[in-house]
């Protein structure tokens, strides 16, 4: 709903108390975003003067994040108070026109009466985004006295790297730069509120507030914020989107203290949630995650107390993304191997409904795999062939590539708790996607290796994944082609395997019969080769039918 449309939907009368009467006023509230979390300890104060065109939407959005929204009206002559009351604000109508700071302090006193622990100031013109409220407020709840939303700090790349020596600094040693002293978007503790009456009623209120808090030795902090004018036109609910979709990135990490910071800082700004999952690291991975999360509200650190494996870490991120209502969820390793500039290439096919799962492909081009070791290339090629057979995605290449993206509807139909918890999860996930007939698309991209150290032990990895693929293959045939809908390719696979094994056994017996028992070789060996041929032919027919199933149409992409 546009602001003008919302305002026109209001009835003209307003009670004398400044609060809406359910019988005379109504506001059609937009659906609350599933990622909004209301803080009961927080209040928002908005000083206003003739802001009827922006105040309604601003109040509705602020109410998603704060339990109390106080609008201090400094003598408006339009319908500002009426619109704010209809939107659900506690309207404090001052007796006569006054300075913005006087209205702000009056609203602050009202907020203290609600026993709030933190008060957030918002500009009434709607320039500030309400989605910054929780991060500002949370920083105060964690010990800061004044948190300023700085417009001079932009994007995740502006976050300073983690410095272990200064991880628990004194208030001013934390590097408070005061990059945006005029910013009116700020959160203040109750202790800080007691000092505000010492400041003048002038436009220097905000800069002098910083000086006063510094003199008193209070804790100050600033975080990057975005203005409404910087948002794409589709971001009407203030959540960053990519082509209209809410995108999240899951980053599993185990002992990645050297690279997790670079990984988090490099995530594009259109990503609205980053789930950094610490799989029981024993180094400073968790501290670094929390450092970046304190600077960026989109970063959500999650933690496993016991090491459960990379697959389990990704499943944890997937489950949280589903809870938060994300549309597309990508996976990027915490070792900074995945180039974030390539992420839109993975998202576009899903946004265009061409598929529900995309995965990077480093093997298709010799140039792309130039930095890949020979042994890694050989191992990936072998596992690619095995995964084609097990998963039924015959056009797929490089299944070991962890750089992927998946749609919400696909994740909702997968038992994430049952997904393979360690390396090999990506192969297991492909089998589960095939059972539901979701399309998968490979997107070529170059390999990128650097300071990271692989956590894979190849001596056991190949054997474990091969066993997993065999079990997954048999499970897929049973569920997809017997339980859900019968297809004769199951019989071809069964007959092919049986005839091939019998033929190979016969060939071994023919050799034994010739060289040990000194009997004729021709007849038993010929029969064995015929049986093996029939077995191979049955297997080829089964694979052909399986390929046709992959290329067939289904209701997902009608």
Overall pLDDT, averaged?
Answer: 84
Total count of strands: 14
User: How much of the polypeptide forms β-strand, as a percent range?
Assistant: 5-15%
The count of helical stretches stands at 17
Query: Could you tell me the radius of gyration in angstroms?
Result: 31 Å
Fraction of residues in helix: 25-40%
Apparent shape: elongated
Strand order of the largest sheet: 3-2-1-4-6-5-7
Taking the alpha carbons of the first and last residues, their distance comes to 30 Å
> Could you give a short account of the major beta sheet?
7 strands, mixed
Which regions are unreliable across 5 or more consecutive residues at pLDDT < 50?
A: 1-35, 168-174
Structural class: alpha/beta
Key phrases:
558 residues; alpha/beta; elongated; disordered N terminus
Structural commentary:
Helix 8 packs parallel to helix 9 and helix 16 packs antiparallel against helix 17. A seven-stranded mixed β-sheet has the order 3-2-1-4-6-5-7. The chain has a seven-stranded mixed β-sheet with strand order 10-9-8-11-13-12-14, with helices on both faces. The chain has 558 residues and is α/β, with parallel strands linked by helices. The protein has 17 helices and 14 strands. The longest helix is centred in the C-terminal third of the chain and has 30 residues.
